[in-house]
Automatic annotation (TrEMBL):
One Pfam family per UniProt: TPR_6
Protein name: Uncharacterized protein
InterPro entries for this protein: TPR-like_helical_dom_sf, TPR_rpt
Amino acid sequence: MSVSGNPVEIGLFKLGNTYYRIKKQRDVIKTYDELIEKFPMGDLADDAYFKKGEALRKLGDYKSSSITMESLRKLYPSSDFIGRSHTLSGDNYFDTGDFDNARIQYQKMIEMLKLPRDTVAVVPIHGIMKSIQRKDGEKRAIEYADIYID
């Protein structure tokens, strides 16, 4: 990664990435929180928010992960992480049994994509299908699948 900017910001980002790679989730969160606090409008802040949300999810703190994703979307509306933040929030809601909100988040990700060319859509479409299946049954999920299958 070639990033220009404040050396402290870059150092915190690289340290957070190191913790991320070795799966030290609490250190990931602490390091990215420091980066976000010191450089809220820095070039790496949105990335730090997203990885913090992933770390919170890995710790099973789904609510805090979703709140972090909401903050990311609010503070950095043009971030490249917006779509993925909807998928992560959808996964958080799904894993807590809130299938309605899971479906809403997955749908927001799909609306950002250019179907059918964008194969990234498979992940949120799968999430929508599983949410419908869990809430309304397999028959309803199959009926809904026709929207995406030509």
